[in-house]
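Researcher: Can you fold this with nicotinamide-adenine-dinucleotide in place?
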Amino acid sequence: MAGLRGLGGKTAIVTGAASGIGAAAVSRLLDEGCQVVGVDLDAEAARRVCAPADTGRFHAVAADVAVEADCEAYVRAAVERFGGVQLFVNNAGILGKLTPIVDMEAGEFDRVLGVNLRGVFLGLKAVLRRMVEQGEGGAIVNTSSKGALKPPANTAAYGTSKAGILTLTKVAAIEHGRDNIRVNAICPGLVDTPILSPAYREHEAEVCAGFPMPRFAQAAEVAGLIAYLLSDEAAFQTGGVYSVDGGAVLV
Ligand SMILES: NC(=O)c1ccc[n+]([C@@H]2O[C@H](COP(=O)([O-])OP(=O)(O)OC[C@H]3O[C@@H](n4cnc5c(N)ncnc54)[C@H](O)[C@@H]3O)[C@@H](O)[C@H]2O)c1
């Protein structure tokens, strides 16, 4: 379903575009009439997943979101290819190894924080600078997680990184409200994407048995919330934290 107000004709950058939620966001934003720059470690993979039909409105860029020069380069690519950036889905992330704190290697903690938290910070820095320079406002969605609100054991790195994203979201919203740049965070529950281990994906019924809506989300359902928050339908929503988890955070 397309037709949200204020998306058509705008340019979006989506990180983590080659898979899962990012790929679904690209597809939804193309349906809404946006131009999209899809960012991932492997640009060819992003191209394959996101642009089966060459619309001329999709451009793939290879970047590591943990590297500042790469973040500056994907913003530059949006400017060169489509003339600017109005929308940003700051979404790339990794789960990392799930172990108790006492067994977690410091290097693994740093790696997860590097992609999930530093990557979101660097993306915000590069995109906000451009949006402020353009002077036409903008909208940003950062992908956090239910794991930030209700962290299970063994997620010290992942959960901490996702909790940090909520604070980055609020700070950015405060700093840029007067620029008419809105910044919100989403907290998906379990979504059926490759980030989940095969064991999880194969045992959906058991894993989700205790949830109010006992199933995984589909990536397109998360993309629907992202598109809404980026659109003018959400014109007065900023600094918010929005769950999309079938009520799982409640139990
Ligand atoms: N699937 C879930 O259950 C779930 C739940 C809550 C939050 N999330 C979050 O949603 C976001 C998207 O996850 P997904 O489920 O679509 O997973 P996914 O593994 O399907 O997709 C993640 C994408 O990010 C890319 N990526 C990883 N590290 C990168 C880097 N350094 N630079 C650029 N790209 C990089 C990967 O190549 C991949 O294409 C993540 O931030 C994840 O933490 C997922």
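Model: Folded with nicotinamide-adenine-dinucleotide in place. The beta strands are 11-15, 35-40, 58-62, 87-90, 138-143, 181-188, 241-244.
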